Amino acid sequence: MGCAGSFPGPESACSAYLVEADGFRLLVDFGAGSLSALQRYASLKSVDAILLSHLHCDHMMDACTYVVVRRYAPDGPYPPIPVYAPAGAPERIATAYSLDEGPLDDVYTFYALQPGSFPIGPFQVSVDRVNHPVETYGVRLEHEGRVLAYSGDTAPCDALLRLAQGADLFLCEASYLDGVDNPPDLHLTGGEAGEIATKAGVRRLLLTHLVTAWGSEAETLNNAAATFAGPVEIVRPGARYEV
Fold it and tell me: Quick one: angle between helices 62-72 and 34-41, nearest 10?
């Protein structure tokens, strides 16, 4: 539903990915602008659970706006839904929504992430800390022998390599251009995403979180293809993939 990096782009909201199995819909990240896209691809109350990789605005801000949907809909209020997120999410989201209305216990039931594995609906979920300035988790979703891995935001790290191991689909950020003096311990380049995909033995690489205002999509794609021999593409809003 959104794949722009760091701030909404001219054609895309920020990070938000709707993953469905057995009629269960898990929303992975809920970045700025993505609530608009949710209304194009699903009903407003069709989300069964939310997983937030970290608490930067481009990955969680529309979880604040979504409070209005669940609390004040004409056929609502809707029952609380689970939100799996780094520690501090309840206070962060409640404060961003309103300084005066208090907790969001009527809207969300929060579960603090920590490295490990646990079920969400039909999915077996594994998360681990990755290399980003704030508490951030890469994600591995497994269902009926199929694996979707998601990098979150990260620079290269061993945890991401473990999470992506043997994935059928690897959704990986590629915010920076190769060959540039990029800030350390923040994001990946296309070439680095391809290297990790190769080392992890993934089947297919999807590049996301590109900051199109600052870089070249063609260059990012070419650099990823130079380090990963399998299928690789840049994701677009509205794209659908069978895992």
Answer: 50
Q: Between the CA atoms of 12, 15, 18 and 19, what dihedral angle is there, to the nearest 10 degrees?
A: 130
Phi, psi of 192 (to 5 degrees): -70, -40
Tokens at 218, concatenated: 């063609």
Cis peptide before 77, with omega less than 30 degrees from 0? Answer: yes
Structure tokens at 138: 């890469």
What single string gives the DSSP state of each residue in 3-50? EESSS--SS-EESEEEEEETTEEEEEEE-TTHHHHHHHHS-TT---EE
Strands (E), the chain: 2-4, 13-14, 16-21, 24-30, 49-51, 81-85, 108-112, 116-120, 123-129, 137-143, 146-150, 169-173, 205-208, 232-234
What pLDDT does 98 receive? 93
∠ at Cα 6 (168, 194), nearest 5°?
A: 35
- What pLDDT was estimated at residue 212? 83
Other CB atoms within 10 Å distance of the CB of residue 179: 10
Nearest to 154 by CA among 171, 168, 173: 173
Query: pLDDT means per 10 residues in the chain (243 residues)?
Result: 92 96 98 96 95 98 97 96 97 94 96 98 98 98 98 98 98 96 96 98 98 89 98 96 96
- CA pair distance 221, 172, nearest whole angstrom: 12
Q: Which runs of E-coded beta strand occur in 54-187?
A: 81-85, 108-112, 116-120, 123-129, 137-143, 146-150, 169-173
Enter the pTM of the model: 0.97
Helix (H, G, I), strand (E, B) or coil at 124: strand
